[in-house]
Design a protein that fits this description.
The protein is built from 20 helices and 23 strands. The chain is an alpha+beta fold.
């Protein structure tokens, strides 16, 4: 979810480690205080002799990160290590070996910077992008790449090679599809598995385990092949609610995987994955935070600089870990509602904003919403239903718009000379332009520029992977000022997309009235203010700058039996920070209402154009 999406041919790309004094990419520009600079100042007090800390690991698109948290959910130190990525057209690949090495480096650095010894870590949890990992019977990587490179054994979440396979699967209208918004995305695992079977038969025959990346991390750490209800339900069509009447979180144990729909796998041509009680895709599942095996193995402990036997919790997808790390981060005045704790959760949406944006909503009953993933049972908060919206390119889109403009190099140089981020400089240019043109408010600068942000398809609520991005209102102007206007219009387009998702979900039975946001993009104040103004409700930021890492650490705390449930851990370790309120100026609302109408019309026009051209080519 997080990290910069770098354009490339098939050569490997290394994401540079970000230090405060170095230039960083726009989507990460507001993260400058969250890496090395944060850790160096975060743990200067004397170390208590008997303290307990929890360690969270998150693998994003461009880096592996580790964070150490105390028993109050306060971040003591964190570190990041770059990971390799290959991009060739629609194919995006990574290496599980490279990722584990990066995790080892990040964990050791985070513990060192937090002045924490291995025996003080009482629980460990993993979160990662929903990427697909292939390994053989020995746990060695199996290539999923046209190149045949055995290192490249991960199909990254954003990979869109399986669009045609997804269309074929969706045409069968299997009953399981109703639990993922009515259609599988090419970003989910069944289409990718089918692609590998059809295009790389030798690799297909060699694979002993197909795993979501976060499940592979916990397996690599413990040797326990139990899969998470988060990954299997959200990305593999596993029907978690098959366990509703049989199991509850407080009776946590490995559960026999009874939620696979064998008919579905047979129908789509992957019946061989049913063999051996689904051995290749998961024989047993568990609630997130369930303790795995005998804890950290001695081998993994040595690699991570920790102690063998540390409890390791069943994993989460990174966005879902962000949800766990932020969903109870409400101000104290708001945390004692008239309704029950769980009912209060159901009024909140969590935005996890990085390369892409995920929109997480919890409910007590299942709500089927066309074009929005879910309802997923126990995929984030155990024993609750989850609805998951999303935008496939947000931080990635802002990077793309900025870096491909002719004024970008000069802008970047100016930002570097001023020791500020590119985002900060663009925001300053917009403020200056607003005053020069005597505009009533900053958002009004884009009255002639409109952006449909579907440059990597539409995940929600239209669920159209073939959707294209649109910029309406271009001129021959190549100035930095014009780039700033395109940046603002793009940012607004992203916010209109979230407004579309919120409105669509509320129309189908949700009652969202509060937004909680986390991720690199929320460190840009303009990004957050525009979202508040456009959606029309307050946005709460968490106290801690790394809620995805906190969510992963919560898994470790639950596995260590520090808390009796995930929700109890969330209430104890989440804490609120700044609250951003929407503008009270009615002119701002009127303006955004008008632009939102244009936003919706842009996609309708695209459909019309698509139909006209299809007819012309028949």
């Amino acid at each position: 979810m997080s990290g910069k999406w770098t354009r490339s041919d098939s050569t490997p790309l290394l994401r540079p480690q970000h230090h405060p004094s170095q230039r960083s990419s726009p989507s990460n520009a507001y993260s400058s205080y969250s890496s090395i600079s944060l850790e160096m100042t975060s743990a200067v007090s004397a170390t208590p002799t008997a303290r307990s800390v929890f360690l969270g690991v998150d693998v994003g698109t461009g880096s592996a990160r580790a964070g150490v948290f105390d028993e109050n959910g306060k971040l003591l130190g964190s570190s990041s290590s770059p990971i390799q990525i290959w991009k060739d057209g629609d194919c995006v690949e990574q290496s599980s070996t490279d990722i584990w090495h990066a995790i080892s480096a990040a964990v050791k650095a985070a513990c060192s910077l937090a002045e924490v010894s291995g025996d003080e870590v009482k629980g460990l949890g993993f979160a990662a992008t929903c990427s697909l990992v292939a390994v053989d019977a020995d746990g060695s990587p199996v290539t999923v790449s046209w190149s045949g490179d055995s290192r490249r054994n991960i199909i990254v979440w954003m990979d869109h090679r399986a669009v045609e396979q997804a269309e074929r699967i969706n045409s069968r209208n299997s009953p399981v599809l109703q639990y993922c918004g009515g259609a599988l995305s090419p970003e989910m695992q069944p289409p990718k598995l089918l692609w590998v079977k059809e295009n790389l038969p030798e690799s297909w025959s060699m694979v002993f385990r197909w795993m979501d990346l976060s499940d592979w991390l916990s397996y690599r750490a413990t040797g326990d092949d139990t899969r998470s209800l988060c990954t299997t339900v959200c990305k593999w069509t596993y029907l978690g609610h098959a366990h509703m009447q049989q199991n509850n979180e407080k009776d946590s144990r490995d559960m026999e995987a009874c939620g696979w729909d064998d008919d579905f796998w047979e129908e789509i041509g992957l019946g061989d994955l049913v063999e051996g009680h689904h051995a290749k895709i998961g024989r047993s599942v568990a609630f997130p935070g369930h303790p795995l095996g005998s804890g950290l193995t001695s081998t993994a402990a040595k690699e991570l600089g920790l102690v063998a036997g540390i409890p390791v919790g069943t994993s989460l997808i990174d966005a879902h870990a962000g949800g766990v790390g932020v969903l109870e981060s409400v101000p104290s005045s708001d945390s004692q509602p008239k309704e029950s704790d769980i009912e209060a959760l159901c009024h909140r949406m969590v935005l996890v904003c990085g390369t892409s944006t995920c929109h997480m909503i919890v409910s007590q009953k299942k709500l089927f919403i066309p074009g929005v993933w879910g309802p997923y049972w126990s995929a984030m908060v155990p024993e609750q239903w989850l609805t998951e919206g999303g935008q496939s390119a947000t931080g990635a889109l802002l990077d793309y718009i900025i870096e491909n403009h002719v004024a970008s190099p000069h802008l970047a140089n100016r930002a570097a000379s001023q020791r500020i981020s590119v985002f900060e400089l663009l925001n300053k240019i917009l403020e200056t332009t607003m005053h020069e043109l005597k505009r009533p408010f900053l958002a009004s600068l884009t009255e002639d520029i409109h952006v449909l942000p579907d440059f990597h398809g539409n995940r929600s609520p239209i669920a159209d992977p073939k959707a294209k991005g649109i910029i309406c209102g271009l001129t021959l102007d190549t100035s930095e000022k014009q780039l700033a206007l395109q940046y603002l219009a793009t940012l607004q387009g992203i916010a209109y997309g979230t407004r579309h998702i919120v409105g669509h979900c509320n129309a189908q039975g949700h009652k969202i009235d509060t937004i909680l946001a986390c991720g690199g993009l929320v460190k840009n104040p303009l990004f957050i203010q525009e979202h508040a103004d456009i959606i029309g409700c307050p946005i709460i930021l968490p106290r801690e700058s790394e809620p995805v890492l906190l969510g992963a650490a919560i898994l470790g705390a639950v596995a260590a039996r520090k808390y009796s449930s995930m929700h109890d851990a969330m209430k104890a370790l989440n804490a609120s920070g700044q609250v951003i309120h929407p503008s009270k100026d009615p002119k701002v609302k009127k303006y955004h209402d008008a632009k939102y109408r244009i936003f919706r019309e842009l996609y309708d026009q695209q459909l019309s154009h698509r139909s006209l051209m299809a007819e012309a080519l028949t």
